[in-house]
Amino acid sequence: MSEQTIFELGQTDRRAFAQAPDTAPPIDDLPETLRRDTALGLPEVSELDTVRHFTRLSQMNFSIDTHFYPLGSCTMKYNPRACNALASLPGFLGRHPLAPASQSQGAMACLYELQAMLTTVTGMAAVSLAPMAGAQGEFSGVAMIKAYHESRGDSERTQILVPEAAHGTNPATAVMCGCEVVELPTDADGDVDIEVLREAVGPKTAGIMLTNPSTVGVFEQDILKIAGIVHDAGGLLYYDGANLNAILGKARPGDMGFDVIHMNLHKTFSTPHGGGGPGSGAIGVGPRLRDFMPIPVVDKTDDNGHDWYHWLTEKDVPYTIGRLSAFMGNTGVLLRAFVYARMLGRDGMTRVAEFATLNSNYLMKRLQDKGFEVAFPSRRASHEFIVTLKNEKQQFGVTAGDFAKRLLDYGFHAPTVYFPMLVPECFLIEPTETESRATLDAFVDAMATIRDEAKTDASMLTNAPFNLPVQRLDEVLAAKRLDLADQSKLARSA
Amino acid sequence: MSFIPHTETDIREMLGAIGAEQIEDLFDEIDPKLREVDLASIPEHADEQSITREMHERASKDANGLCFVGAGAYEHHIPAAVWELTTRGEFYSAYTPYQPEASQGTLQVTYEYQTMMCGLTGMDVSNASLYDGASALAEAVLMAVRANRNSNAARVLMPASVHPFYRQVARNICANQGIVFESIGTSADGRIDQAALNKWADDDITALVIPQPNFFGVLEDVDMLTDWAHNNDAFTIAVVNPVALALVTPPGHWGRSNGVDIAVGEGQPLGAPLAGGGPYFGILCCRKKHARQMPGRVVGKTQDVNGEPGYVLTLQPREQHIRRSKATSNICTNQGLLVTAATIHMSLLGPNGLRNVAAHSAANTRKLVAKLTALEGVEQVFDAPYFHECALRLPADSSSVLDALAERGIFGGYAVDAYYDDLERVIIVCATETKTEADLDAYADALADVLAQADYYRHRASVA
Questions:
Q1: Do A65 and B89 touch (CB under 8 A)?
Q2: N or C, where is chain B less crowded by C-beta within 10 Å?
Q3: B80-343: which CATH architecture?
């Protein structure tokens, strides 16, 4: 049940007439040598063709709005419609990024208040909303740590400690910032091995990057001890906020001793994931790094009894690592996060962590009761937990990947598979707080049914999925063939 | 309002299943010292009605006027169908297509996007987008340093005619990797100074950045620049406006050989609203031989076990979740939703629609320039072909004039003197296809009115 491409739907000279001016005035002063004389390579379709095509394509997606999506570490919770509607008001959508501050007071007020709420809920000293995604937030954090050490003439500090189970963005970011990565092992309970940490820190330590709760789904019990060890060695602590949903309003990275944190607003503050972005990677800083924040940042002054919002620039943030986007980050995403934060309020924020954790522990227990093996059974689950399917692999010859594909047939998006890599055949399962108990129970039933299928007929898993628009896709062929654009259509198009 | 569906019965029974007394017990592995959290400064929750009212009040304060500002973000008409379709929950609330069989919608859209970008730029391959135009330039620089094996210098020639914010972002992102940026000045006609460029002819140059159009709206001599770079074993990185490419030669065809190595640009003019600066998306295309050095997600066409066509994320071994510290970039998310909007936008416009948008934008800016330069003391700064932006010198302090215009509901352009010492009193204006003859007249009338008081503004500027 594949869908033709938009190019295949096109016909020469068919047009969606209402969509653009229907003439092209001559631009006589354009030199001949600069004029385009080749086809644009765009399809020629009607508006109805277009609407049907993209509607059909949308129906080939799983999404939060249509399916339970327990993708670990991604916090796929409900994206409230009000956030989109209110961020899309004409005054916000029509505002040019370089519009004068006098014509931006509405949006700037929202951004200022979002900065303030995020500062409080993370326990940091200040927040910059500039980074455009989690990875850019990470980049800012490590770049600030580096700039901090350099500003003190401490430029030998180039090592970043990263737990081996960390998100891949952590080591990639450290390298992008010109640092060297030192990996730390995880102990049997899922925590950082303190003794190894003590050995690893020293005069070259720039800092440590930690996710807490960690990527194995447990709260780092010795976090205060870790902070002490790293700080005593002269390093700083970076908090990867991918799992902030687990502790929102219950515990704060600032209180744990972190010097800088990034938040994935598209996770914890429920802005849409959009099929892979836009994200938003706001960062919070402690007192040591306040002067290094990326810009722009919104500040407020009193103008004859009225609030006046204005942008902080290089002059105001003396050691800033500077600007990371052409304008002001993903402003539209930030407005959605603002609406969400206000709808939660301080009471709702705490409930987020509580119910994310309740759902996670409940789902973990129910799966355990059905005989699935949990990776860290002695620990509480945070907002997510790991199941290992190594027994199923051994007994029935099916992999975590096969299980994942069969779950799709049952109408559940698969959990994160094969991450973190230290647990074999793993599922990282994050149900989020917005799912009902009934949905969790249905997921448990599907998992149990699939294991029964594995016992009786493993091909139901190894050949899955069966009920989707396509059956299992050949990823090796894709990499070998490298068909990244429809060249045949390009050659023929207008 | 935390969108939590649990009833009291659910909570009781779920805790019972877990074997916990209360929810608080689930946090008992967190040090008690860390569990005293003061959130008093965060407001109590707002219901949908009250936050709706508050947001309407705030939105009504913004963007009340006619926008003639460009400088990297452009107001174009976006067909209603674009965001109606883009915000369908199946696109809006899906994630990165890690399970391709359950994500064929997003994947096929992305493949179609990649095809359209190849068509528009004349390049072989496109990735699935980066964050924005400026960060795409930074990534292109890093990519050129990786891919250009004829160069050891990590030295990039960055013309001053590239958007100042893009130059800053490239510097900030590349700062810790030992990459050296050398500035190339601008000649009197607003284009890259060829004599300044030639001073580097005998040096090891990794890449030359070529903006088209440049920050001033001026069209560069791209064939000459591309050939110069390739004659010197340097990569070429084009920074383009995708709408301009409907009229001017695309980077895949610049110069005598096969065009540039990497083309980047800001995707915003293709269906993204101005929205105060984002979310937008960054375009990145390149030659096929460099495909494995690209940063970010890429979609490839393949087939399923029955031989039916389908789409997957491909070339993943370049990426951070596989290669970790050896990845081509730390980037994880792209700007998927914006790519969806752009693909629908380009489908609805088609080649003719996009050409007409580009031509009307160019024509409107020419009309505006004629009306404004008819006023005493207003001059066009550069005598060179331009696309839909133009640099004008005013007879009074530009910031004061722009403020006065804003009070009259005209956002008259962008003052560039903060970034160019020799361009005092210069603003860049832009009139896209969204402007009518009456809008252009309204600007000219307002400027005439403001300049009539120019002595006042000159005075204010000298006092300040």
A1: yes
A2: C
A3: 3-Layer(aba) Sandwich (3.40)
